[in-house]
Amino acid sequence: MLKSEQRMAVLELHTKGVSKRQIARLLKVSRGSVVKVIRSQQTTVPQIERAEKADPFRQDIEQLLKDCSGNLVRVHEELSKEGAALSYSALTAFCRRRGIGQEPKIPEGRYHFGPGQEQQHDTSPHKVKLGGVEHLAQTASLVLCFSRRLFFQFYPEFQRFHCKVFLTDALDYMGGSCGVTMIDNTHVIIASGAGKNMIPAPETAAFAERYGFAFVAHAVGDPDRKGRVEAPFRFIERNFLAGRRFADWADLNAQARDWCDKVNATYKKHIRAIPMELYAQERRYLKPLPVWVPEVYRLHQRFVDLAGYVSLHTNRYSVPADWISRQVEVRETKDHVHIEEGLRKCVTHRRLIGVFNQRSTLKEHFHPRPRSGPSVLGPEETAIVKALPEAAAYVNALKKRGRVQITLALRQLLRMVREYPKGAVTAALTEACHYGLYDLARVERMVLRRVARDYFPINIEGDDNDD
User: Fold this and answer.
1) What is the spatial distance between Cα 139 and Cα 157, in angstroms, rounded to a whole number?
2) How far apart are CA 254 and CA 330, in angstroms?
3) Do both 261 and 405 map to the same domain?
4) Are residues 136 and 191 both part of a single domain?
5) Which residues on neighbouring strands pair with residue 133, listed in sequence order?
6) What would the mean pLDDT of 285-298 be, rounded to a whole number?
7) Distance CA 42, CA 26 (A)
8) Residue 109 lies inside a defined structural domain of this protein
9) How far apart are CA 182 and CA 163, in angstroms?
10) Residues 138 and 281 in one domain
């Protein structure tokens, strides 16, 4: 079938007296097509009116589509059972042309932002290698919508505390804030609601008020609304994280900040500009930073354990020994842990990030245990040595190697010394000490065998008969 341009050329050449054969040769089409165009004298392509195989089953298709929850595979199976000679491809093409079960396509729009109008914030999980070990990190990012200036950092977890820490660093990096911060419907910032009805948490609302902006959440299911911050995540994964080595979290975030400086000074083809040049225009529209910005912190109440440590997120931080068993206030900041006992006593540690069950001990808090003086004998041990001095060596060995509680063992040994002859007990203990036997039940059987042998001898020749 000829296109409208070809049909116009055929009619124009025909009016100039060109033969049908020559027209076909010039346009490289068949003579039959040329004849049909000349007869119709129309430049528009005629519509083909023909019935489709699926037309008789249209009502059945619409009903089955509802019953089968929109699954066209199941619709085709049910139609085949009813005897419809219809292929699956013909069914899908029919539904597509008639708009059956199809959502109308809406072209994507574009959002235009003025200088200082809006900034967007979001997070995304990424895998990073720190010291050769792979960790799952949360990438937090902030983008100025007009200039496309980017800032991001990595965190082992992302809670409300980390959100305020990140936004503090990000706004300091930007040199100010826009009037609106677009976010998704995350519980990290939002207390209740979603979209236009969202209510931010009191502490996040107070944070936004300090910097002069307002949190706004996009509608549920409309992530394109914050496309400015969504798009760079793939760029971060494919470019920044690819092939780079990081020693720890501090090194990772330091390299991320340097990479942001580099990227923001690079020409962007999709915006046909350099973000830093656009930022120079946008900066005077940003809301200035507060004169004084307090450090973001989390407050905890803890008791000092008997070892002189305070536990925080499975990690332990040392304090002076005289704080043991006292209640202290722990102030957790971005990089440090401050432990306060009262108003004038404070200990500061470097915060352990991304590790668990570790100890942080300051040099001034390391107190070696005092060496124990000469051991004081207990009452049971004193009674044993006094009644049977030969048992002193066995008692010392029993205290070091015995498996039973030492007090119970010494009481059992004292009973044996008091109840059995000293000769039998001494011989049994000497033999037990030689072979390393500290099971007192077995030692007692050894004593009883000696008692039976020494004090109740067996007459092998037989007893004399009494006349």
Assistant:
1) 9
2) 27
3) no
4) yes
5) 130
6) 93
7) 20
8) no
9) 14
10) yes
Q: Where are the beta strands (DSSP E) in 77-149?
A: 118-130, 133-144
Residues 341, 238 share a domain:
no
Q: Do 268 and 236 reside in the same domain of the chain?
A: yes
Q: Are residues 230 and 134 part of one domain?
A: yes
Element (H, E) at 332: strand 327-332
Angle between helix 4-15 and 31-40 (nearest 10): 80
Rg (CA), the chain: 45
Same domain, 273 and 403: no
CB 128 within 8 A of CB 241: yes
- Structural domain including 94 reads 55-98
Q: What is the pTM assigned to this prediction?
A: 0.64
The answer to whether position 123 is within a domain reads yes
> How far is the C-alpha of 268 from the C-alpha of 260, rounded, in Å?
13
Residue of 436, 443, 376, 379 lying closest to 407 (CA atoms): 379
Is residue 49 in a domain? no
Return the structure tokens found at 204: 């996040």
Q: Are strands 133-144 and 118-130 parallel, antiparallel or unpaired?
A: antiparallel
Domain count of the fold of the chain: 5
Question: Distance (Å, rounded) from C-alpha 278 to C-alpha 233?
Answer: 21
Enumerate residues 6+ apart whose C-beta is below 8 A from 272: none
Residue range 130-163, pLDDT digits in tens: 998 999 999 999 999 999 999 999 999 999 999 9
pLDDT score of 309: 94
Are both 87 and 33 inside the same structural domain?
no
Strands 359-360 and 315-318, sheet pairing: parallel
Residues 396-428 have pLDDT tens digits of 888 887 666 788 888 888 999 898 888 888 999
Please classify residue 30 by burial: count the beta carbons closer than 10 Å to its beta carbon, then call 0-12 exposed, 13-18 middle and 19+ buried: exposed
183, 220 in Cβ contact below 8 A?
A: no
| CA quadruple 205, 208, 209, 214: dihedral, nearest 10 | -90
Both tokens of residue 242? 């690819």
Distance CA 56, CA 131 (A): 68
DSSP states along 350-380: EPP-S--S-EE--GGG--PPPPP-SPPPPHH
DSSP letters spanning 425-450: HHHHHHHHHHHT---HHHHHHHHHHH
Whether 76 maps to a domain, the answer reads yes
29-43, 59-73, 302-316: range with highest mean pLDDT = 302-316
Q: What is the mean pLDDT of residues 46-50?
A: 72
Q: Please name which of 123, 121, 159 lies closest in space to residue 138, comparing C-alpha atoms.
A: 123
Would you give the DSSP letter of residue 99?
T
Q: pLDDT tens, 331-369?
A: 999 999 999 998 889 999 999 998 899 999 999 887 666
Q: Where are the beta strands (DSSP E) in 4-51?
A: none
